[in-house]
Please model this.
Amino acid sequence: MSPEVQQQDVPGSTTRMNPEPDHGEKSYRGTGRLNGKIAVITGGDSGIGRAVAIAYAREGTDVVISYLNEHEDAEQTAHWVREAGRQVLLIAGDVADPAHCRVIVDRAVAEFGRIDVLVNNAAYQAMYDSLEDISDQEWDRTIATNLSAFFHLAKAAVPHMPPGGSIIGSSSVNSDTPNPILLPYDVTKAGIANLTAALAGLLADKGIRANSVAPGPIWTPLIPATMKPEAVEKFGQNVPLGRPGQPAELAPVYVLLASDEASYVSAARIAVTGGKPVL
Model:
């Protein structure tokens, strides 16, 4: 089903989207691939983060969900984690603040003792018609939220990650084919791909893997909250499959990268783009 014309304020709400995204609530079936693991997911309240949280929980993982201030969405995600029989810890706050990134890790370790999987997924974007429209504050906010937070989270988490640990960054198809009106966002997503690949080499001797996922147009609250209504209506129509992807269609890739089955997969970037190549 194609999105309808709609607009929301940042950061957006799942329940106000039409149609609501599919996070795998009714479709994802776990097989125990992540039994006993502990995962931290930023931006875990909605969109891709919620789909990953649901899948991880149904695969046997206890989940820490970091989110900004979307309390209703976060509680909904927590409901699905608990329904799967797993524990969940909700942590509200802004990952653009390095101190808060360290708080997320500290609270996760205090609650669960370690971190097996770190998913850097929180993101901010906005559309700009010209370079002059991008204020210093908007540039700094986008870099801090999308890219710098990843660095601070990984730096804090690695000492608490055992061999076999997995770090996953949410990059984007825009990292290779940047959309001019999303310039700051494009830069951060390219940075995430590069940072993840560098971490893979830097952490190999610790037995910790690092990979990234490059989504294409995925139907999440970020879209109606940051794009013009007419762009929302056409969202996802420009890829070969001709439609936006659902968050549930990303979750299996995040499960694979977190699993021991991917023990020889590091420094990879997996495209989930509806047919648009990632170079």
